[in-house]
Amino acid sequence: MNIKSDLHHQHKRQLSKLCCAVVAVVSVQFSTVCTAEDVKMYSSVPSADEMANQLFPGSSSQTSKRPKTRSISFDPVETATAPTPPAAESVGIGLPIQFGYNSDEITGESRPYIDELGKMLSRDDLRTEKIVIEGHTDASGSSQYNQKLSERRAKAVKDYLFYKYGIERDRLVILGKGEYSPLSGQDPYASVNRRVEIHKYHE
Questions:
Q1: pLDDT (tens digit, 9 = 90+) per residue, 124-136?
Q2: Which of 27, 29, 32, 25 is nearest to 177 (CA)?
Q3: What's the per-residue H, E or C state across 98-113?
Q4: pLDDT tens column, 133-150
Q5: CA-to-CA distance for 142 and 178, rounded, in angstroms?
Q6: Strands 131-136 and 172-178, bridge-based pairing
Q7: Burial, 197: exposed, middle or buried (Cβ in 10 Å; 0-12, 13-18, 19+)?
Q8: How confident is the model at residue 35 (pLDDT cuts 50, 70, 90)?
């Protein structure tokens, strides 16, 4: 009886571990997919206005450009008011900003991406907005090294925006993600995972 009981309990423990492993894998995959859906990846340089529409959909660069018109008042008339539409959600942007091999030096071909980002953050209607700059790497090399490298690269983008465009440092929050957030459906070692993501900062 003791042998059968031990075997039964051992089988239950193994089955429990297997179930936990399956749940963990599914949870990680679901999390990765959800994150990817919140980011719009770009393969060419988006304009400052295009990035603003993704990150800050309620903003409008056209507001200050509208000509002033004479105001005319009429007697109040009862009208039915349409319900206010829900506010559009902010969508992060993924930029293929590249750096020198194993360094945080931004390549020349990647600077136009950050230039448009600097122009966006310099807009009058966005001067109080903050962003999060996320550095990402592929899975080549050790995870500890990739974590530090992603932080350095995010800081390099922050420094570029500060020194070239005068964007206040407290508006630029940096975050290193290392190799831990590969794009959904991509090989963790794929070069497309070497990217910088920009998100609206939420208090």
A1: 999 999 999 999 9
A2: 32
A3: CECCCCCCECHHHHHH
A4: 999 999 999 999 999 999
A5: 10
A6: parallel
A7: buried
A8: very low
Residue 169 has a CB neighbour count (10 Å cut-off) of 11
Helix (H) or strand (E) holding 26: helix 2-37
Other beta carbons within 10 angstroms of residue 133's beta carbon come to 25
Q: Is the separation of the CB atoms in 96 and 157 below 8 Å?
A: no
User: What pLDDT, in 10s, does the model give residues 56-95?
Assistant: 998 765 444 444 444 444 455 555 555 555 556 889 999 9
Q: CA dihedral in degrees (112, 118, 124, 128; nearest 10)?
A: 150
Looking at residue 116, what is its pLDDT?
98
Beta-sheet strands, E only, within the chain: 39-41, 92-95, 131-136, 172-178, 195-200
* Tokens (6 digits) for 72: 């005319």
> 88 with 53: CB under 8 angstroms?
no
Give residues with Cβ within 8 angstroms of 112, minimum separation 6: 45
Q: Whole-angstrom Cα distance, residue 161 to residue 154?
A: 11
Token pair of 39, please? 């980011």
Tally the residues of the chain: 203
Q: Torsions phi, psi of 139, nearest 5?
A: -90, 5
Query: What string of DSSP letters covers 59-97?
Result: --TTGGGSPP-----------PPPPPPPPPPP-EEEE--
